[in-house]
Amino acid sequence: MTAFTGTRLTLAFAALLGTTALCSAQDLAAIEKAAKAEGMLSTIALPHDWCGYGEVIAGFKKKYPDIKVNELNPDAGSADELEAIRANKDNKGPQAPDVIDVGFAFGPQAKTEKLTQPYKVSTWDSIPSNVKDAEGHWYGDYYGVLSFAVNKDIVKTMPQDWPDLLKPEFANAVALAGDPRASNQAILGVQAAGISAGGKDGASAGEAGLKFFADLNKKGNFVPTIGKSGTLAQGATPIVIWWDYNALSGRDALKGNPPIEVVVPKTGVVAGVYVQAISAYAPHPNAAKLWMEYLYSDEGQLAWLKGYCHPIRFNDLVAKGKVPKELLDKLPPAASYEKAVFPTLEEQAAAKAVITSKWDSVVGANVK
Questions:
Q1: How many Cα atoms sit within 13 Å of 135 on the Cβ side?
Q2: Among the four given CATH numbers 3.40.47.10, 3.40.190.10, 3.30.1300.30, 3.40.50.300, the one describing domain 11-141+272-328
Q3: Which DSSP string do the residues of 299-354 spell out, in sequence order?
Q4: Cβ contact 102:274 at 8 Å
Q5: pLDDT tens-place string over residues 311-359
Q6: What burial class does residue 329 get, using C-beta atoms within 10 Å of its C-beta: 0-12 exposed, 13-18 middle, 19+ buried?
């Protein structure tokens, strides 16, 4: 059912209709009351050191002290989260998750399997349409973009875009943060380079990305080593193509020894997004809705940003002046993220097929 505008539905009537109308202030008050009566929220796969989730959970507890947060298996993966819903369909106990936070591909899968229920948060309109289910079954929560983590002790002139990496001064300098035949992060790095080079869809971006890395390898600029904090600091891989949140966290961990600069390229700004959803079998559905409202409020979004994961409402928050200057100062310029593109699942799959099957024959660099 499409969202109603200017019409308030009672919670009971909304539930009866299965509507996904935007939550109004009066509805939210009723949800909060019902959530407090439930007294618990069961989350899953939320390690405290990932995207600032420790602060996110603490903030929710502080705001709603009557609701206990029951944290299930913080180290679970997206597939594990869906399995936890399947395994507990008839279980209303604490081992059944109310909410999930999963990779982009798993949102549509969960909906197809009828594992989710629709709910549109009050800030729904500020979530980009290409990263949310039209019916409200799942929606993007935060994302990272592919960036260049650069060791400033070794690299004196910062690369500003993908074509810069082909310059002679970056000989033996550029590495991917994974094997492009197996690592999603590395595959998207190749796809991002292809988009920068003019690739228009998944397959063409994959082909263009392979050509870019073949050129990079022929020029002697590509290092066939999986880049990480250690290789970056030691100088084995002075430039690492990395998710920005990993790069920024790595920068902080090195504490200036050596100094690291994180550069978001001017073109080919590819984002990888995670999505939130409420279990169709949630034992605490109102607590789940209240959790969603908190996550998509300004407060919740900024808590993710403190963990260097860009909240899905980032551009909206910046435009409204809601992001503190001290937080923006720790990040690459906000304008760098305005060009972020979110490849569709189909585009990602098409690019992956091209890149993984042709890397050896086109690029010929055995990354390890």
A1: 13
A2: 3.40.190.10
A3: HHHHHHHHTTPEETTHHHHHHTT-S-HHHHTTSS-GGGGTT-B---HHHHHHHHHH
A4: yes
A5: 999 989 999 999 999 998 888 888 888 888 889 889 999 999 999 999 9
A6: exposed
